[in-house]
Amino acid sequence: MSRSCLYLVSSSANREYVVDCLEALALPRGLVQHFRYRRPYVDEALWNGLPDEPGRTPDELADCPVVVLYLFQEQSSGAWRTSSPYLPVRCGRLVEAFRDGKVAHFYFTVTDYIMQAADRREARLIPGDTKFKTSSAPDARDSYAHLDRDLEIAAPPSYGDTLAFQDFVDFASKATQWRTRSLGSAPLDVTYALMFFRVASVLYEQGGRWTELEPRLRRLPGHPVAEYELRPLQTYYVKIITYLFFPLPAQFPGQGTATLNLGFDQRIFQSSGRASFPISSSYDLEHLAFQPLSVTDERRAVLRIECRHGTPTDRENFVRREVLAAEVLLPAVVRPEDDRPRPSMAQRRGGREGSAGRASGGPR
Questions:
Q1: Distance between CA 335 and CA 300 in Å, rounded?
Q2: What does the alpha-carbon distance between residue 329 and residue 80 come to, in Å, rounded to a whole number?
Q3: 195-348 has which CATH code?
Q4: What's the pTM value of the predicted model, to 2 decimals?
Q5: Using one digit for the tens of pLDDT, what is the confidence trace for 18-68?
Q6: Is residue 152 pLDDT above 90, yes or no?
Q7: Where do the structural domains in the chain lie, given as residue ranges?
Q8: Burial, 49: exposed, middle or buried (Cβ in 10 Å; 0-12, 13-18, 19+)?
Q9: CB-hemisphere CA count at 13 Å for 267?
């Protein structure tokens, strides 16, 4: 098995698969995402190289580059057929891979966004000569977890995550269709009104300066997790950036009723300011505040960023439109007063405030 790049495909066959792509776009750097596939849809060479228990990822795959891809498909005569090119969504680094019975599991940290093509004004697509098949056999299935050459399509750190994210919405997202379409005896045609947003960082103020937290990776076998280390009674801010391709308010997801909300376990956290904001513009930047409560020992919990809206979901009609957004989970550990949160790499190296170890800029 040669070291290359792991391509993980999420298709339009199911609304949850589409949400996986929105989640890949929305997660802050360093958090872990989990994809899984049944055996028939995994590259045979990749499947054969996977261990049958967690904690034993082979050296050939350890820290392997990852690219999440979106694929629009249509179902006809019971089979899903590719109806668009493969669209790169987000880059990452593999943390763990193993198989559990008939299912392969891949855990990876999200990293760079995608650099778009043609001077960044045209969608970056996977070249047509790259064939994702489970084997070289003429009748091989499409492969949804596939090892191939690294196309090196990540936006460089100097370009900026927010700009690369906005380029994706402006150019890449319009190069395909975001819908689930099935023809036949049980027809279905759902077009999704997508809520594009990204959690840029978790920040706190210290000495009149912003400090950006870097999630710490815990390599738990079978369930690796990256979490933020927090201090009691310190006010933290979740920085959220929205960017939609709908120009008019009447076209916004939720038609003016949508909000992004910060949720948490009230036994561990409390609100320390604004905890939600409306989607009233095609672009926005907001900071949602929270504060961990006092603890005497270590407590683990999850902060949740979710979209709420008042638009009813039509489950009866063949052709319909649904609001679709990621739910972003931010794992956290609250430590007692005598422990301090983990600063970003930039602070540890004396870099610029909020740069999280990147080559330029403050908090994005």
A1: 9
A2: 31
A3: 2.60.40
A4: 0.87
A5: 999 999 999 999 999 999 999 999 999 999 999 999 999 999 999 999 999
A6: yes
A7: 5-186, 195-348
A8: middle
A9: 4
